[in-house]
Amino acid sequence: MDxxxxxxxxxxEAHRLNEKKLHAYLADHMVGIGDQIFLHQFAIGQSNPTYxxxxxxxxxxxxxxxxxxxxxxxxxxxxxxxxxxxxxPTLVPVPKTYLxxxxxxxxxxxxxVMDMVPGRVIDDQFAPDFTSRERGAxxxxxxxxxxxxxxVDYKAIGLENFGRPGNYYSRQIDRxxxxxxxxxxxxxxxxxHLIKWLPREN
Length: 202
Description:
It contains six helices and six strands. The protein is α+β, with helices and mostly antiparallel strands.
């Protein structure tokens, strides 16, 4: 796997899974799962633990909520799965999804499985390793995908009831404030000021 593809590492100790349970669940819910699976964890990413699942000649990606106590509405892998699945029949490039498991008895938290799509991981917005032509191609493709996404009829693909329309910024500020206060470990005066200021400026 070259440097431009998603690099994997052995599964971190804190993110180890019950591979026996996972294999049994996948074998019951997906076609073509062989007698054994191999797990590696993607090296980048800080929100939801993400794994490469190799079985036979196939490779999949498993994303799950992290273990432990989570903030309300955070790490919503079920929402990720619903959006990716709904966009599948459209021209927006998304991987094929296979299943969503919300039974916490399987791996401890909800997870979903989709196709593995190798590609470059750009973790620097300036893409210093790219030539100017390559950067231009990336930005052009980004704009094309965004335009395609905005052209999707969300009602036609079953997302009419996804989220709540209107007052987006107010709801986001309220959510971020609640999440910040729920995980606050010390008083930061500038944050206190920001929490009071943002709603007034919205």
